[in-house]
Amino acid sequence: DAMVIQNPRYQVTQFGKPVTLSCSQTLNHNVMYWYQQKSSQAPKLLFHYYDKDFNNEADTPDNFQSRRPNTSFCFLDIRSPGLGDAAMYLCATSRELAGGNEQFFGPGTRLTVL
Amino acid sequence: KQEVTQIPAALSVPEGENLVLNCSFTDSAIYNLQWFRQDPGKGLTSLLLIQSSQREQTSGRLNASLDKSSGRSTLYIAASQPGDSATYLCAVRLDSSASKIIFGSGTRLSIRP
Description:
A: mainly beta, globular, B: mainly beta, six-stranded mixed beta sheet, 0% helix, 55% strand
């Protein structure tokens, strides 16, 4: 089945230790998104890629970076995780930005920072 | 600034009842609105997408309506089942740019057997 896959599902890191979260998709969608969702809060868009074009949200901290080496994969790098970065990180895809393009989400990676 | 609100934050109803979840947004100039389901500790599952030119969408026991002028959308769930227990989120897209997608905080629904 075509889907959005996130690995790992649970990630524990230490304060200040860089961590990378992975997302892959078999949908061949042009757009990939990363969201941060803290407990009982709405998902917050961090950035997205349209093909190879990177679009950062204005309020996304510099501590968060992303890479998209090819259509299928997108990575979220947290350079120096703080306690406040503990959250669920959701990856999503859509075929295009325009039109009635639904977003399809992965299962998420829950990040714990010790 | 667009704000999306979902009230109540939590709702508990007995199995078999029909129910309505609410979503309101402050700026009526939206591109589309999407309803999602989120199970505890899981990602989001898309339920229904309504374009700004549409008034409703249906999928099985779910019906979503959109009233742009009043800044409201509702998700109607017919004959609720315990398996419907989850958090339901709505999200609006202001335009074709992905940076303009705004989520509500969700309504946590519990269906009592």
